[in-house]
Amino acid sequence: MRILLIGDYSGLHSALKKGLIQQEKVEEVVLLGDGDKFKDFQVDLSIRPSWTTGRWTTVIRKAIHKVFGWDIAELEIGWRAQQHLKKMKDFDAVQLINDRPIQTLPIWERRILKRVFAQNKKVFLLSCGIDVFGLQYLMTHPEELSLLQPLLQNPNLKPYYAYVDVYQKRGVMRTQKMIVTHCSGIIASDMDYVNPNQSHAKYKGLIPHPVVLEENHAQEFAPFDRVCIFLGINRGNYHQKGMGYFEEALQQIQAKYGNQINLIVAEQMPYDTYKKARAEAHIVLDQVLSKDQGYNALEAMARGQVVFTGASEEFLEYYNLQEDEVCISAKPDIAYLVAKLSWLIDHPSKINEIGQRAGVFVQDVHDCRKIANQYIKRWEIRE
Predict the structure, then answer these.
(1) Which residue, of 126, 167, 188, 256, has the fewest CB within 10 Å?
(2) What percent of the chain clears pLDDT 70, i.e. is strictly above it?
(3) 199 has a pLDDT exceeding 90
(4) Region 23-42: what's the mean pLDDT?
């Protein structure tokens, strides 16, 4: 079986590939993408822009974006994807990470994707990150916990949500319609993407995030005097992840506990550097405005760290879990976050208890080898 993965989001396709190549029936797995931007994941076919990201061209690129609201790097990305088309053929299954997997000009994206559909057997759409269906659903369900809530509550944040507006543009919506019409199925990557897709005829259910467990083993922390708390910040999605709630909670925790804690705050760094900075933490603050865990949270949970992240009622019910059993639900409530952090600092034995359960949960539910097998079974079903 030959598999082509197009695009990546928080390392999902990268981890899935590592699981797929361990399956006996899989002959080849090819990942096309840009490395997920500054995270710099490894890919097989790169569409990462280089001409438009040089020292002088970046100045021109920023000026054009400021005046016209358009990123000229999209042209280079489209050109690079076009050059790989001959290598993107004769695959048994192709999976698109999103309904804008290449992120070039919409007309060019459609042209490339039409070729992908024509020269391969089956193509699936993975609902991962904001997309057309997701945005439409959240705009009509403002009460739903989501990355859109800060914008709905404060329209002044609109400049920080420019990438969301892309999914309301006619060209991108045409691309999405074409994909949905011709694809063999839509798969949700976590609980955040179930509601927007579950009423669609092509929805094929939820397959959890894959995690590479060979690189992430649950550790039991030796006795420690100071609780280490890690917060990783990406300014590009600061509001969408609810980072402000964490920062305000940490200010109060720092004032309350002083030298009893060690805070590590990491910003805008390549993924390998980010992982090293996170490795020493007992507690990891991941994100607030989500129902389920993303890849970074799951990696930390696999290592036995206590993670503040999405753990909604839907998530707990789906996996038959209790509150605080495998992670801490990071609600958009500063007093609540302070109370939960204080509870862990005052009762450090809870850190190991929750961390060990988290490691078992990720091993049982998210092992990339098990997840790869779920995808293969889904791709092989005859329509």
Answers:
(1) 256
(2) 95
(3) yes
(4) 86
Q: Which of 46, 68, 69, 49 is nearest to 57 (CA)?
A: 49
Tokens of 116: 């992908």
Q: Which residues of 48-60 are buried (b: 16+ CB within 10 A; e: fewer)?
A: bbeebeeeebeee
Global pTM value? 0.91
DSSP notation for 47-68? ----GGGSHHHHHHHHHHHHHH
Tell me if 326 sits within 8 A of 301, measured CB to CB. yes
Written as six digits, the tokens of 13 are: 């396709």
Query: CA angle 127-25-21, nearest 5°?
Result: 60
Q: Which residues contact 147 (CB under 8 A, 6 or more apart)?
A: 130, 237, 240, 241, 289, 290
> Residue 157 pLDDT > 80, yes or no?
yes
What's residue 359's pLDDT? 95
Q: Is pLDDT above 90 for 10?
A: no
**CA dist 163 → 192, 202, 364 (Å):** 18, 26, 35
| Distance, first Cα to last Cα, the chain | 18
Measured distance CA(292)–CA(245) in Å, rounded: 18
Q: Please give the Cα distance from 65 to 22 (Å, whole number).
A: 43
pLDDT value of position 39? 65
Tell me the per-residue pLDDT of 270-315, one tens digit each, with 9 for 90 and over: 777 888 889 889 999 999 999 999 888 999 999 999 999 999 999 9
CA neighbours closer than 13 Å in the CB half-sphere of residue 204? 24
Average pLDDT along the chain: 92
Structure tokens that stand for 204 in this block? 């094929």
> What is the Cα–Cα distance from 282 to 226, expressed in whole angstroms?
10
Q: Can you list the alpha helix ranges (DSSP code H) found in 208-307?
A: 243-257, 271-278, 295-302
Q: Go through the domains of the chain in sequence order and give each one's CATH number.
A: 2-210+368-380 (3.40.50), 214-365 (3.40.50.2000)
